[in-house]
Structures are given as C-alpha cells and as structure tokens.
C-alpha cells in the first residue's frame, strides 16, 4: 500500500483532473510514458495482479483417506445410548394389592437367582422373572405383621423378612422353609435390611443398627448407634467395608466395618447432615468405590453425592419432588431415581452432568420402591397405586444375554505354537 500516492490521488489528483485543459497528442503520449515509468497508472489501491497459486498437497488425498479410516477403525466412536419415546412406558404391569404405602419401609428386592420378592400386607410373594410364575412364600400372623422389609442374601436362595413386631425371619426359598428367627435386637419394627456376606444388618424404628451373624446362636455381633429416629435406608458398599445408613432424623452415617466392636456401640466414621428431610434412598456407585448417592424426602427433594473417604458433599441437585429410591446403571454412567408428588415418575440422569436423559411415567402414586434385575437391564418399581411395573431402562435384556453368554472352552494358550 502506497499511502503517499493514495493521498495524492484523493486530493491533488482529483483537482488536476477537474482543472485539466485540452493538450496536444504529443503531450498525452509523454504523460502515458511518464506514468508507466513511475508506476503511477493505478486505479485500485488493493488489487491482485494474478490469482493466488493453487496449494500443493504435501500428502496425497488417497493416503490421508486411508489413514483416517485406519484411525477410525482403531478407535471406534461409541454411539450415544438413546431411549426411544415408546420405551418410556413400562414393559409390563402387575397388580400389587395391599402394598403398604409407607415411605420408610423396604418391601421390594430382586435376588441373584432372578426372583423378585415383594411384601403385600402380611404376605411375601415371589415372582420368577425367568418363567413369569408367582408363588407365596409366607403369610405371617397378624400379631407379627405386617411385613416391613425384605432382602435377598447374596446366594439368591435365602431371604430375610423384617416384621412389624421387631423380629426378623430367615427363609429358604427353594424349600419354602423358615430357618430361624432373629429376636432381641430391636424394640420396634425393622424397616431396613442389608446383607454383607454372612452378616445381616438390620435397621429399626428404634434408631438402632445391628449386625447379625446368621451362622451362630448369639447372632448380635455389633451395634451401631447414631440415629435418633427410624433407620429407613441401609446399604453396604461393594467391598463390604463401609455401611451407609439413612434415617428419619435427616442424617446419613458412614460406618467402617474394620473398627466395629462387639463390646461397645461403634462410632460412625462420618455424620452427613446436609439433607433437610428423611433419607431412605441410598446407592453406592458401581464404578467409583467411595462415591455414594443419597436422596431426601418431601421436605428436601435433592439428590446428593458424597465422597465417603472424606465425608465431603460433591454435588447437590434439586429434583423438585420427594426422592424415594435410587439405582445406578451397572454398564453406563447413569443414575435412576423414583419420585413422589407431583409426577410420580422415574427419572434417568446422566452422571456427572446430572442432565435428565429420560422421564418414565405411568404410576399414579409415589414410586416407593425400586429393584434391579441381576443382568442390570430391567428395573422393577412398586408404588402406592398398588402396581408393580417393569422398565428396560438400562438396556435390552436380550443384548445383555448375548454378551454374557459363555464362550466355547478353548485350550489354554491355543494361540501359541506347540512345543514338541
């Protein structure tokens, strides 16, 4: 850019053109020659003399195409899981008459043998998900009932049943026989149960938490005291080292099994006081051992996430309604919550962003209980509307069956050459 020439053309050049007088042909020829010599016959300040050169390909196109395809083959993009709108309704609905509409109880559990247990009034029913058949396990006497909690042992055969009269019965579902009754630990109803190998942990309306060794006569081996009101949520971590308890006193306690003592009440590891309503919904994260999710009742409405090593609250999300139950997806980083008034819905959240992925509706009363199938795909929900619904919210059970199908037995080190 020649700024001096530009300024001359804008000012003096225009004046000379306006004041010019006719000149002789020889004078015009001289001016043209002078302009060419001094490079003055420019009419555009910015102009390309020639088109820019075509860029040269350093790497031929066919090589880049093949390289990119190789890269994509090496690192395939994981497709985003989508739950179609048609799948946002339950796959199946069963009647559940006389289901007790009580937030503080735990009346539904799905065992490792693919049998669902549900307590309806004073009777415990078993629904075999493999065959679709239903059978009655036990009906307790009126002075003992109703049933206030059910929980399968890890073997999927034995089941614990908590009662309104403070007792806990142990049953063998294969033979339909009662094995024993645990007495003397609680003074009021037992609304929460959790197994940890051969230890059955019970939580009562009296605020006590008791570890019972079901193998021995004197079954009470530890007592945890920290809650002042009913214990309505109990969950052992996958490692069996930490126990989370939630109560009607709005508290969560984290207990460490390694410091438990049979001679005196055990001190909690952490006391978590951030919730402002009863805490029943508790779920340990399957992919991060020290991550616990908790849900608050109608006066709280939040889902909170905790680091159980430090006791720190990592996040809190207002759901807008009572949180009754929580379940983690075993295969994806997702969390399912069930709710009460006003929508009585199940909500699927993406973790850790806590963006809503789907809302599952169909229940007409608060969804009190959730249970997950052994393959992790199907969720059963029971609500105050006395219905039991099944949702394939965590994946297709048929696809899960294909993935879990045992492979043909191969000879060890079949890929290696034989040594003769």
What is the helix tally? 5
Shape: elongated
**In what range is the share of β-strand residues?**
35-45%
The total count of strands amounts to: 28
Which residue ranges are poorly predicted, with pLDDT under 50 across at least 5 consecutive positions? 42-53, 55-72, 407-420
Q: Return Rg in Å.
A: 36 Å
Task: Provide an overview of this structure.
This protein has helices spanning 3-10, 12-18, 25-38, 61-74, 397-404, and strands at 92-95, 108-110, 115-120, 123-128, 134-139, 147-152, 158-163, 168-172, 177-182, 190-196, 199-204, 208-213, 220-225, 231-236, 242-247, 252-256, 270-272, 279-284, 291-296, 302-307, 312-318, 323-328, 334-339, 346-350, 355-360, 367-372, 379-383, 387-391. It is mainly β and 420 residues long. Strands 1-28-27-26 form a 4-stranded antiparallel β-sheet, with no helix packed on it. Strands 2-3-4-5 form a 4-stranded antiparallel β-sheet, with no helix packed on it. The longest helix is centred in the first third of the chain and has 14 residues, at 25-38. The radius of gyration is 36 Å and the shape is elongated. Residues 42-53, 55-72 and 407-420 have low confidence and may be disordered. Residues 63-89, 400-420 are annotated as: Disordered. Residues 75-84 have a biased composition (Basic residues). Belongs to the WD repeat CDC20/Fizzy family.
């Amino acid at each position: 850019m020649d700024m001096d020439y530009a300024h001359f053309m804008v000012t003096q050049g225009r004046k000379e053109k306006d004041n010019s007088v006719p000149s002789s042909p020889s004078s015009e020829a001289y001016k043209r020659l002078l302009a060419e010599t001094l490079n003055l016959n420019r009419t555009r300040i910015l102009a390309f003399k020639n088109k820019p050169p075509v860029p040269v390909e350093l790497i031929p196109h066919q090589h880049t195409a093949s390289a990119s395809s190789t890269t994509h083959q090496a690192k395939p993009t994981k497709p985003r899981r989508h739950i179609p709108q048609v799948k946002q309704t339950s796959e199946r609905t069963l009647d559940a008459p006389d289901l007790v509409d009580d937030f503080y109880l735990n009346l539904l559990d799905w065992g490792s043998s693919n049998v669902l247990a549900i307590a309806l009034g004073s009777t415990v029913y078993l629904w075999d998900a493999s065959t679709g058949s239903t059978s009655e396990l036990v009906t307790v006497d009126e002075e003992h009932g109703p049933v206030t909690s059910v929980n399968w042992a890890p073997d999927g055969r034995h089941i614990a049943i908590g009662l309104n009269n403070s007792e806990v019965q142990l049953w063998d579902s294969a033979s339909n026989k009662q094995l024993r009754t645990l007495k003397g630990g609680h003074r009021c109803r037992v609304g929460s149960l959790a197994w940890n190998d051969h230890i059955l942990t019970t939580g009562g309306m009296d605020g006590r938490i008791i570890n019972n060794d079901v193998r021995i006569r004197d079954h009470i081996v530890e007592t945890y005291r920290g809650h002042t009101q009913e214990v309505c949520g109990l969950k052992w971590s996958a490692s069996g080292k930490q126990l989370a308890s939630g109560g009607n006193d709005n508290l969560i306690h984290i207990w460490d099994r390694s410091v438990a003592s049979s001679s005196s009440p055990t001190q909690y590891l952490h006391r978590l006081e951030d919730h402002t309503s009863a805490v029943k919904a508790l779920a340990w994260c399957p992919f991060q051992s020290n991550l616990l999710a908790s849900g608050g009742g109608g006066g709280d409405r939040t889902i909170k996430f905790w680091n159980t090593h430090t006791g720190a609250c990592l996040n809190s999300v207002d759901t807008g309604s009572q949180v009754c139950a929580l379940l983690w997806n075993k295969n994806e980083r997702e969390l399912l919550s069930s709710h009460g008034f006003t929508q009585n819905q199940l909500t699927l959240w993406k973790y850790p962003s806590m963006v809503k992925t789907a809302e599952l509706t169909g229940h007409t009363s608060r969804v009190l209980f959730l249970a997950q199938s052994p393959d992790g795909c199907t969720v059963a929900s029971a609500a105050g509307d006395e219905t039991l619904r099944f949702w394939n919210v965590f994946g297709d059970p048929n696809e899960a069956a294909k993935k879990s199908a045992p492979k043909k037995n191969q000879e060890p080190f079949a890929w290696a050459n034989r040594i003769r």
